[in-house]
Amino acid sequence: MNWAIETEGLTRRFGDRLAVDGLSFRVAAGETYALLGPNGAGKTTTVRMLCGVLPPSGGGARVLGHDVRREAAAVRARVGLLTETPGLYDRLTVAQVLGFFAELYGIERPQERIDRYLELLDLGPQRDMPTAALSKGMRQKVALARALFHEPALLFLDEPTAGLDVPTQRTVRDLLVRLKRDGRTVVLTTHNLDEAERAADRIGLLSGRLVAEGAPAELRRQQLGRRVLVRLERIDPEVVAAAHEVAGDGTVEVVGELLKVSFLDASRSTPDLVAAIVGAGARVLGVEVEEATLEEVYLRLLGGVRAGDGGRDLGAHP
């Protein structure tokens, strides 16, 4: 496997506060990986370490084959970073901002690339406007263009759609699809669970340490399984008792004339459940299997975490 990111025991302290606690995970080349967690969980601190901006206090990581401690400059040259609140040179126009970074990265034929990224992010009409005059959404698109401009193999996007209007959110999501199609590696931090589920191949739930990891469907199945919804003509205590016997450690919930029973393996258990319910004298009107949501998984694993429990986020200097 070609790993774009490998971390082992990655740790960051700010004084006596532990922000990131022994974090170990891998991201494959070409994969989109989402880090989810509450404010203060250490998401942005992790990103700053992986970008070579903030040195770890312990453990280590390799990014695109480079050690983030010893080869931080090489890491910074090969990755792109979009922060939640990107700073732009307010007096420069959009085209001038990109031109400045073209010079910084030594890009040949810079005008050609400037034109390409202005078109990609629909910034052509704003090319000669100073960035100070742009809306938040437009400024975010300029920052995206800047992060992508040197065409990095690995892109870090920190809350890329936070506070943006719907059209700009759509632009960012379309860009994520395009990056994936082009084989780029993307690490996404977000509070938007729907965005993470749609964009990410795998998700890591973070609270200072890695609480759980996997593909969205895998996380839903491992943590909550599936619910079988059985609609009945009438629900008697005997029917509920029969459902509990089949469910074992699973939950049984009665909502009106609907019986909700959770299983780790619903496909195997559903026939036994229906047989038990019918055997208890119930008349079954319908059966449906319902997937758990990523929000339910998040709340189960991280719902009790208070802001700051996982350490100071945003990687701010102490």
Q: Would you summarize the structure shown here?
A:
With 318 residues, the chain is of the alpha/beta class. The chain has helices at 43-50, 72-78, 94-104, 110-120, 136-148, 166-181, 193-199, 216-224, 237-247, 266-279, 294-302; strands at 3-14, 17-23, 26-28, 32-36, 58-63, 66-67, 79-82, 154-158, 185-189, 202-207, 209-214, 226-232, 252-255, 258-263, 284-291.
Q: Explain this structure to me?
A:
With 318 residues, the chain is of the alpha/beta class. The protein has two domains: 3-215, P-loop containing nucleotide triphosphate hydrolases (Rossmann fold), CATH 3.40.50.300; 226-283. It contains eleven helices and 15 strands. The chain has helices at 43-50, 72-78, 94-104, 110-120, 136-148, 166-181, 193-199, 216-224, 237-247, 266-279, 294-302; strands spanning 3-14, 17-23, 26-28, 32-36, 58-63, 66-67, 79-82, 154-158, 185-189, 202-207, 209-214, 226-232, 252-255, 258-263, 284-291. The strands form three sheets. It has a six-stranded mixed sheet, with helices on both faces. Strands 1, 2, 3, 5 and 6 form a five-stranded antiparallel sheet that branches. Strand 10 (202-207) and strand 11 (209-214) form a beta hairpin. 38% of the residues are buried.
